[in-house]
Amino acid sequence: MNKKDIEQNQKARNKFRAIGFLLLIPGIILVIIGMVSLFSAAATFGTPSLFFCCFIGLPLIFGGAVCLNMGYMGSVARYTSKEISPVVKDTANYLLDGTKEQIASTINEVKKEKIKCSNCGEFNSKDAKYCDNCGKLLVKTCRYCGEENDSDAKYCNSCGRSID
User: Fold this and answer.
1) Exposure of 72 by Cβ count < 10 A (0-12 exposed, 13-18 middle, 19+ buried)?
2) Which pairing describes strands 123-125 and 139-141: parallel, antiparallel, or unpaired?
3) pLDDT, tens only, 125-146
4) Burial of 121: CB neighbours in 10 Å, binned 0-12, 13-18, 19+
5) Distance between CA 43 and CA 62 in Å, rounded?
6) What is the DSSP string of 31-96?
7) What is the Cα 162 distance to its own chain's centre?
8) What is the pLDDT of residue 110?
9) Rg of the Cα atoms in the chain
10) CA 2 to mean position of chain CA atoms
11) Helix crossing, 3-43 with 52-96: angle to 10°?
């Protein structure tokens, strides 16, 4: 976000906060007036004269709450994330504890079953002769003893003679 966007967002937050309080406070007052009218009329078995104020106040309270929610949403989200992040990190570390060795051994087993291309680094099946990714020869066969060696080997693993 650039500076202009940040300033516009701050102005919008301030407007939401102001409108929220301007709606919420009269809404609460109107609901209180309506409820006092209702309960005082019920005590004297009369008719509540200002109960309609509740029907005006409740939508004002709702509108004010929505505006305040919009105005304070970022602050609440930042606070919540700061409170939750350490718990999530601790939980993840607890769940992953002891699995590092298992994951590493699984990766090593997969690597043993595959041949890594010396040209592009792609892993190919153990019996592949050419790389699936770049097409380069994966194994070199020694012309003296017939042993298969890595494609980048200069000397045979079995007899030690030059492969080139």
Assistant:
1) middle
2) unpaired
3) 777 878 888 988 877 778 888 8
4) exposed
5) 29
6) HHHHHHHHHHHHHTT---SSTHHHHHHHHHHHHHHHHHHHHHHHHHHHHHHHHHHHHHHHHHHHHH
7) 54
8) 64
9) 37
10) 23
11) 130
Q: Are 130 and 122 in contact (CB under 8 A)?
A: no
Angle at 62 (CA atoms; ends 58, 67), nearest 5 degrees: 145
Angle at 55 between CA 51 and CA 56, to 5 degrees: 105
Measured CA to CA, the distance from residue 161 to residue 145 in angstroms comes to: 9
Cα 54 from Cα 66, distance rounded (Å): 18
End-to-end CA distance of the chain: 58
d(CA 127, CA 50) in angstroms, rounded, equals: 88
pLDDT for the residue numbered 118: 74
| Residue ranges, the chain, pLDDT below 70 | 110-113, 164
Helices vs. strands in the chain: H and E counts, helices first:
3, 4
